[in-house]
Amino acid sequence: MDSGYRAAKEALAHRIRASAVLDVGGEDGLAFLQGQLTQDVRAMAAGEARPAAALSPRGKLVFLSRVVGLDRDRRRLVLPAAQRETSLAHLKKFVIFQKVEIADRSEDFVRISLFGPAAAGFATPEETVRLPPEGEFSAELLAPSPRLEAIEKALERAGSVALESGTAEVLRVEAGRPRFGRDADSSNLADEVGLDPAISTTKGCYVGQEVVARMRTYGRVNRRLVGFRFPEGALAAGTVLKLPEEPEPGKIEQGRVTSSVESPGFGPIGLGYAFREVPAGDRLVSAVTPELGAVVTALPFSG
Fold it and tell me: Residue 18 in contact with residue 84, Cβ under 8 Å?
């Protein structure tokens, strides 16, 4: 077990993450976001953060974000850096004839993820917004870029360990947090990815709402994001899974691996999709190498 993983589980660790930061305001800004995002963004206090997603008219994912309240009329979207151009273009596409201001502030801020029980005792630095826990993160700091050096020194004094990318990936998979572009993309419906906290069931209309409501009222998705345990050894991302008794893998895909890691705590595990007929605890096998299996597991990993 490496020192970073242990610190993330037992003490304090951190990782600086590249992020996109988009501020949305203007006379029609709040109403505009309310119609674009799955989350209710109206009554948010300054500094309050909520998960949210943007959907296409067909209910497919466009981007995942955290929404932060700035003041009564302005909201800040915090997204992975890889979604910067896509999310900005998507929002600008729908702004026509509305008094909305969208500012790309990505270069002005730095995002620092905190891990471990000691994160609760790490004081929020001046001019920094502290975002609540999400997935593997005990907290996240959204700070002005010039404050980064001072925050890194404060973390060093607190005994925090800087995580390597491989360790951070293990923690993400353990927590079951999907990464857009790997475990989720524009082919996925929101409910396939398990985004309940990001979807308001009480707000008015938003793009893609009809599809979400119809699926929840009249049906259910055919597949859903799950965890996999690999008893015979890790299966690579992209591996197609089938039922053990099914002889022809080309016609009956029952699952697919999207992320795969070697966890110090849980052994070889991964994320991916299983079809709805396959319950937690059932075993699927590789369509190409059927002696290698994947046991469907609830998220986050435990036990």
Answer: no
Q: Over the stretch 258-302, which tens digit does the pLDDT of each residue have?
A: 999 999 999 999 999 999 889 999 999 999 999 999 999 999 999
pTM for the full predicted model: 0.94
Residues 118/9, Cβ–Cβ less than 8 Å: no
Query: Side chain identity at 142, as an amino acid letter?
Result: L
Beta partners for residue 189, in sequence order: 60
CATH 3.20.20.70 corresponds to the domain 3-171: no
**What's the CATH number for 223-297?**
2.40.30.110
Residues 6+ apart with CB under 8 A from 31: none
Enter the tokens of residue 163: 């995580």
Q: How far apart are CA 272 and CA 178, in angstroms?
A: 9
Collapsing DSSP to helix, strand or coil, 118 comes out as: helix
Q: Could you tell me the residue ranges of all domains in the chain? A: 3-171, 223-297
Inform me whether the pLDDT recorded for 203 exceeds 60. yes
Q: How would you label 171-190 residue by residue, b for 16+ Cβ within 10 Å and e otherwise?
A: bbbbbbbbbbeebbeeebbb
Percent of the chain with pLDDT over 70: 98
Judge whether 17 and 83 are in contact, CB under 8 Å: no
